[in-house]
Write a structure and sequence with these properties.
The complex is a heterodimer of chains A (290) and B (162).
Chain A: H1 2-6, H2 19-23, H3 28-33, H4 40-57, E1 61-66, H5 68-73, H6 78-87, E2 91-97, H7 103-118, H8 120-139, H9 144-159, H10 166-174, H11 176-196, H12 198-201, H13 212-221, H14 229-239, E3 243-247, E4 257-261, E5 274-279, E6 282-288
Parallel strand pairs in A: 3-5
Antiparallel strand pairs in A: 1-2, 2-6, 3-4, 5-6
Helix pairs in contact in A: 7-10, 8-9, 8-11, 9-11, 11-13, 11-14
Chain B: H1 3-18, E1 25-32, E2 35-44, E3 55-61, E4 72-75, H2 106-118, H3 128-135, H4 139-154, H5 156-161
Helix pairs in contact in B: 3-4
The chains are: A alpha+beta (290), B alpha+beta (162).
Chain lengths: 290, 162
């Protein structure tokens, strides 16, 4: 009991002794029991290092590329490969996003902005919807001070769309300050929507036995935290933007499972949903064959 | 101006405008005018708690990607509390680590630390002696120890006054 108590993560020396040094004068039983212990700071710093290394590899949002890239990625993985080959019948391109934990929000934002650029008739409604999010955030309990900078950047980027072009949009989404502000605003919007509709969504959290407020702080608002069904559902409803997520996994069969997120059942099928492709742990943007 | 400085200036204005609403924060300000990423704060122990009458200085360091990442806050004035390291002043509070949300501000962070004083979490201690007293239910012993250290470390000003 006492041993367990003393082993608590927070009371360790800053630098754990090297395992090899310690192991030399321990019995084999002790060696099995002994684990290097890290402080919270060390664990966070380590996670950050992994993320930073990942960040070096690819831009926040990449150029479009042929879906053949997926084929190449999974050439040695039969269940995945079969699905990719089937997918090629309907989709021909994809756009990768950096795997920094924000990929869902970034992919969503880019695909949404891009769709507003391609379809001027829905642009105005998109801007109005984004403007309405300040009300949503205030009713969700957010302080204006905490969200206004992110909101301003997001609105500014959206309003530029009619005078902009796809290349500039991409450049802006590759600029950390702009791109991360947009991610942050969408995270706050998602969180506010979940909090306001907590009665509907709290039941989904019973398994994890945390409140909606805890969930929102730790899983939604926290920068770099990965997203799942709940976040996608909330964001598509909050912004009235339908999304289809195509799940590429190792299950049997050659069809990717499509999860549809429609803001409301009535509008289902009446407009085109953004398409994202999901591989375990990561979202990218997918394009239909024209 | 870079976005972090812009945000911090807004926070400073907001705090100064609302300071009267938060009597437990005595001071919250950049440590010097040149560097907005280093702040200091002073909090007062709340009445009706064993921390009553004490004043603690805190050191606040703001990362370059604030508010995506939390500030690093530690006690400068020594304090005896289950979740604060007795020697280094390190604070064990989930919001400063894993539960940080960019919706927090420096003010709400300092308020949370002030709240932590009277709401210790003995199951994740940085000060095992203080935590153990609570864990075995010795509230009288715990409170008198806190009072003693509050008097020793956090009431220096009144001693000088006397």
């Amino acid at each position: 009991m006492l041993k367990g108590f003393l082993r608590h993560k927070s009371i360790q020396p800053l630098t754990p002794p090297s395992p090899t040094l310690r192991a030399s004068n321990m019995t084999s039983q002790e060696q099995n029991d002994w684990q290097p212990e890290l402080t919270d700071e060390q664990i966070l710093a380590f996670e950050q290092k992994i993320k930073d290394e990942e960040a070096e590899k690819i831009p926040l949002v990449c150029q479009k590329e042929s879906i053949d890239a997926l084929e190449k990625e999974f050439q040695d993985n039969k269940p995945f490969l079969e699905k990719v080959q089937k997918l090629k019948e309907t989709n021909d391109e994809l756009r990768k996003c950096r795997g920094d934990g924000n990929c869902f929000f970034r992919a969503f934002a880019f695909a949404w902005f891009e769709s507003l650029m391609r379809n001027p008739h829905i642009f105005k409604a998109g801007v109005e919807k984004l403007k309405s999010t300040t009300e949503l955030l205030l009713s969700g309990g957010f302080q204006e001070l905490a969200f206004e900078d992110f909101y301003d950047v997001t609105l500014n980027q959206l309003e530029q769309i009619p005078d902009s072009d796809p290349d500039l949009l991409l450049v802006n989404f590759q600029t950390e300050e702009i791109s991360n502000s947009i991610v942050m605003h969408l995270r706050f919007v998602t969180s506010a929507y979940l909090k306001i509709h907590s009665a509907e969504y709290e039941p989904f959290l019973i398994v994890e036995s945390i409140s909606i407020d805890q969930f929102c702080a730790q899983e939604v608002e926290a920068f770099g935290r990965e997203s799942d069904h709940l976040q996608i559902t909330a964001l598509t409803k909050a912004l009235d933007v339908p999304v289809e997520v195509l799940y590429l996994d190792g299950s049997s069969g050659d069809h990717v499972a499509v999860h549809e997120f429609w803001p409301d059942e009535a509008s289902k099928g009446s407009r085109k949903a953004l398409q994202l492709i999901y591989r375990p742990g990561h979202y990218d943007i997918l394009y239909r064959k024209e | 101006m870079d976005p972090v400085s812009r945000r911090l200036l807004k926070e400073l204005n907001d705090y100064q405008r609302e300071a009267h609403n938060h009597p437990e924060i005595i001071e919250l300000t950049p440590a010097d005018d040149e560097d907005l990423t280093h702040w200091r704060a002073t909090i007062a122990g709340l009445d009706q708690t064993p921390f009553q009458g004490g004043l603690w200085n805190l050191d606040v360091k703001i990362p370059h990607n604030y508010p995506m990442q939390p500030p690093t806050v530690k006690f400068i004035t020594q304090i005896c509390h289950p979740n604060v390291h007795f020697k280094t002043g390190e604070i064990c509070l989930d919001l400063l680590k894993t539960a940080w949300s960019p919706a927090w501000t420096l003010k709400s962070t300092i308020l949370a630390i002030s709240l932590l004083l009277s709401n210790p979490e003995p199951s994740s201690p940085l000060n095992c002696d203080a935590a153990n007293l609570l864990r075995c239910g010795d509230l009288v012993g715990y409170e008198s120890m806190i009072r003693m250290y509050t008097q020793l470390f956090a009431m220096k000003m009144t001693e000088e006054d006397q």
